[in-house]
Amino acid sequence: MIELRHLKTLSALRDAGSLVEAAERVHLTQSALSHQIKDLEDRLNCSLFIRKTKPLCFTSAGQRLLTLAEEVLPMIRNTERDIARLAGGETGRLNISIDCHSCFDWLMPTIDHFRQNWPEIEMDLSSGFTFQPLPALVRGDLDLVITSDPEDRNGIIYIPLFSYESVLAIGKRHRLIARKCIHPQDLAKETVITYPVDQNRLDLFTRFLDPAGVEPAAIRTAELTLMILQLVASGRGVAALPNWTLHEYLQRDYVTARPLGEKGVWCTLYAAIREDQKNSEFMVDFLNTAKEISFSTLAGIKSA
């Protein structure tokens, strides 16, 4: 009565917290997902979760199936990986560049997990802040680039990992704390704190300030996320950061945050790879692992 697709669906439902987001993660329509769950409940003659609860609340039967999913799905994944390795005898290299200051927190567990499963793959890691990583990817010096700024280049494809909201971090006594959302003109008199990268690679400028023709009063840079948030908390300026980066600090009531504009500024993080590597077993496994760990550890992200 219980199929692998049911376990994958319930895992996605638990991680996403809603039918809409879970449907996106398993590549089904919301109607098809609801039908699949209802079909399973009819087979088992019991409900698996309580409708219209937020966050989603699973019944005892649902919890038991989630426990089964946690045991079975990794076993299936590991077996598929082993068979692929045996079939292809694949060895190779994975040189990664990160064009994203906030990505280390989730990328490191991804690399650790991947290294355990593919010990024969030679790995290297570098930041893309001091050179242009995409031309290096085209040349073959790199194999994968994590970026939110895709550029159209021959032979390069972009695999969406997830979408995130860029929000404005402000101090708890800041004058903008009374606003429900931030408008571009609100930042005309503010010091904006950013990572030390070109403005044309920052979502705050390319997707929010520049289209409105607004420039902040001053720009200050800091290398580390913690340093940026310390300056924000001390009233030295404001900073636009990914929602997942801010989650821990918002929980600790260290700073507060407001959306950029009424609809918010949503961005997508991509893995850029060469087209000739898109079907490589270890590359496919790395990308799947990156997505799984991101959705299990990062708050506020969505399927892209």
TrEMBL record:
<protein>
    <recommendedName>
        <fullName>HTH-type transcriptional regulator MetR</fullName>
    </recommendedName>
</protein>
<dbReference type="GO" id="GO:0003677">
    <property type="term" value="F:DNA binding"/>
</dbReference>
<keyword id="KW-0486">Methionine biosynthesis</keyword>
<dbReference type="GO" id="GO:0009086">
    <property type="term" value="P:methionine biosynthetic process"/>
</dbReference>
<dbReference type="InterPro" id="IPR036390">
    <property type="entry name" value="WH_DNA-bd_sf"/>
</dbReference>
<dbReference type="GO" id="GO:0003700">
    <property type="term" value="F:DNA-binding transcription factor activity"/>
</dbReference>
<keyword id="KW-0238">DNA-binding</keyword>
<keyword id="KW-0028">Amino-acid biosynthesis</keyword>
<dbReference type="Pfam" id="PF03466">
    <property type="entry name" value="LysR_substrate"/>
</dbReference>
<dbReference type="InterPro" id="IPR005119">
    <property type="entry name" value="LysR_subst-bd"/>
</dbReference>
<keyword id="KW-0804">Transcription</keyword>
<dbReference type="GO" id="GO:0005737">
    <property type="term" value="C:cytoplasm"/>
</dbReference>
<dbReference type="Pfam" id="PF00126">
    <property type="entry name" value="HTH_1"/>
</dbReference>
<keyword id="KW-0963">Cytoplasm</keyword>
<dbReference type="InterPro" id="IPR000847">
    <property type="entry name" value="LysR_HTH_N"/>
</dbReference>
<dbReference type="GO" id="GO:0032993">
    <property type="term" value="C:protein-DNA complex"/>
</dbReference>
<feature type="domain" description="HTH lysR-type">
    <location>
        <begin position="2"/>
        <end position="59"/>
    </location>
</feature>
<dbReference type="InterPro" id="IPR036388">
    <property type="entry name" value="WH-like_DNA-bd_sf"/>
</dbReference>
<keyword id="KW-0805">Transcription regulation</keyword>
<dbReference type="InterPro" id="IPR037406">
    <property type="entry name" value="MetR_PBP2"/>
</dbReference>
<comment type="similarity">
    <text>Belongs to the LysR transcriptional regulatory family.</text>
</comment>
